[in-house]
Amino acid sequence: MVLSYIAKEKFFDKVNHDRLMRKVAEKVEDKTLLLLIRRFLQSGVMVNGVVRDSEEGTPQGGPLSPLLSNIVLDELDKELEKRGHKFVRYADDCNIYVRTSKAGERVKASVTTFIEETLKLKVNQEKSAVDRPWKRKFLGFSFTFHLKPKVRIASQSLQRVKQKIRQITSRKRPVFLGDRIEELNEYLTGWLGYFALADTPSVFKQLDEWTRRRLRMCLWKQWKLPRTKVKRLIALGVPKGKAYEWGNSRKGYWRISKSPVLHRPLNNRFFESYQLKSLAERYNSLRST
């Protein structure tokens, strides 16, 4: 199975107003409503504090823009249906599924022509490609390469969530552990709500482990002085000899965060006491309901 991926370049900036209004007028007869939509389209945009007239495009972030964009791209949906293609589209991203790379190139060329000449939109050639489904992404998801493929989280999406976790658990931020965990819970709850569609539970387990390691690193940094580290380790039940050995270690924060001297006392139960929510447990709960 080969995937032909079509992406519209700066879609919301390129919508032709006259063409869009003709499509809306095919279904809407109320002239007052049509005038209101036209004024919305021509309301202008603010760039560096200066209002500029908008002769094309729909205001990004405007409440009406998603609806108007779907009206424009409804023609693309109907064209693909007429051709008998299997496809999926969300806003201005569209994946078209074909059997061979040769068919993919042919479909890509013909659909690009339709988008640019009929819909008067610009195709982003850099983001468009013909490739295997598991090598492409759609709305943050991709597929595994198995005979019966599974939905997985795209690598770019995993990189973004890890980058956000790095920001929250940065050693440079002087934040109490409870506050970090509260911020993590708030962000990861929303993130999981979207990506729970994935069929790869191991990813969530790995993220849990990686996040806890990041938090151990933060604690080790916050303890600062060797005598403080020794005192904290002993309080956590680490034998005195080991506590003195590791408390005076010159190994890096990230390396020590995986060592048994921190991994065992700062275990899952420890972080649960601070209300850290497990992605893996919440994923399994969502999938079972």
Written account of the structure:
The chain is of the alpha+beta class and 289 residues long. 55% of the residues lie in helices and 11% in strands. Helix 2 (17-25) runs antiparallel to helix 3 (31-41) and helix 8 packs antiparallel against helix 14 (279-288). The protein starts with a strand and ends with a helix.
Structural category: alpha+beta
Q: What series of H and E elements makes up the topology?
A: EHHHEEHEEHEEEHHHHHHHHH
Helical segment tally? 14
Number of strands: 8
Which blocks of ≥5 consecutive residues have pLDDT under 50?
A: none
The coarse silhouette is elongated
The portion of residues forming beta strands comes to 5-15%
Determine the fraction of residues in helical runs and give it as a percent range.
Answer: 55-70%
Strand order of the largest sheet: 4-5-1-6
Distance between the termini: 32 Å
Oligomer: single chain
Please tell me how large the radius of gyration is. 26 Å
Mean pLDDT: 87
Strand count, sense and closure of the main sheet? 4 strands, antiparallel
